[in-house]
Predict the structure.
Amino acid sequence: MINGSLLRNAIISAAITINNRKREVDELNVYPVPDGDTGTNMSMTIGNSVAELKRLDDKVTVSEVASTAASAFLRGARGNSGVILSLIFRGFSKGLAGCDEAGCEDFAKALKLGVEAAYKAVMKPVEGTILTVVKAAAVKARDICAETNDEVVFWQEVCAEAKNVLAQTTEMLPQLKKAGVVDAGGMGLVIIFEAMTAVFDGGEIVVSEEPVSRSEADADSFRTAVSEYDDDITYTYCTEFMLEKNEGCPDVFTLRAYLETIGDCVVVVDDEKIIKVHVHTDNPGKALQKALEFGYFINDPKPKIENMRIQHENKVKDAKAAEEGFTPAEPEKDFGFVAVAAGHGLEAMFTDLGADVVVKGGQTMNPSTDDILRAIMKTPARTVFVLPNNKNIIMAAEQAVKLTDRKVCVLQTRTVPQGIAAMLAFDESQGLNENRINMTKAFEKVSTGLITFAARNSEFEGHQIKEGEILALDNGKLSFTEKDINKATVKLVKKLTKGDVSYVTLIYGADVTEENAEQLQQTIQSKLGDKIEVMLVNGGQPVYYYIISVE
């Protein structure tokens, strides 16, 4: 039988293992757009349980360990993969409820309930994903109970089956087959189960290669086109600068390639006259020296070098102080709003529209269930509308509903323009159901275009994509690739405005200059004519050069 302390150690070891290997899982992501990658999201989800599990003594029961872990997983869940992982362990907890120790049949029951919880939460389950892997593991667990009472053998067989089915996912989804990879979420789950099994078999808790990711409410890292995870600091110095190009400036892709050799989180924005650079490195001097081959530094803004480790220490102190001083708001009105957004302009826009709390988050950094829960509890209203504004945040928002005593309505907004349209449609004279229907109808009429960059080489939806290329997304689907940001934006706007359109709103991001954005607005307005009004908003968002709203 497996006792509580062994299960506790197994989950802690699994959290450290997936954290050590999260980049390996991240690299399986076939989607070329920068996002909150699967390995990172799963690592942050399970990592949220480590501190609480370490506080449990050796006399703890299996039931107490499973319950503690499941609660922490749920609150720390980030992204769809993190939410599914939390639901698997939530069912796991239910299956082990009341157990001082657990045997093969207990774990088989727990896995079955975990599968049921995960499938129930996903509106349209897709086979060839983490769901397929965990379902196969649960079926094997049920069957193996008839052959053995040895928990180690049981878990070894479960892991072997999970790994076998994981290998088959390559053939189950066309995107995985083209890329020649297995499903990232399924891989993450196999890593977790194998790490737990190793401890059950007498192994020690693995050594952490870097700090274990954990959920934090603080998310001030959205200053640039790449969000940094505070607990994931590989290089010390965040280095940013702008150059005015020399005549005969070399290909800027060679600057990007060099920076990749001395650091990470590299963003190089190449305008006609200006080069903007962001990199994390231990050698900022080398980055600056190399940059002189391409141009000369300008003074506004001045080059900036910041020690991220010191910044992180300060953030931890601030987050701890904020957590200790947190008190839920007393409901003072009928309706309130929580919106998820990243970028000073977008945050201000949602606040001006009536959002009580704006959760900093979006693409590349999915807020946790607990982040959204705290925002709901800070909202002084009896009924709270939540606008996730990103497809990878909807599931985490829906899990937060189960943890609050407020009445909460999560609208299925997948983009920022949809969230804005929903808030504009709110009518305080109407009730919850009327507003839910009208706000949903409003955001479903909005078309969204996104201009971003390829985070990796990929073959996706029939496109051969090179890292760094400009990507144009039409309502979430990759439409085409380009070399030039402005050309891509004009082309995508033309595609989105076919039909009955009155307004186009260009929301420009942190890596686009105001001058460039204004010139592009004028270009698009001249091409569309007077019948369609083109508006410009400084969103300040990371990742996306432009967010395009068409109504």
Observations:
- The radius of gyration is 24 Å.
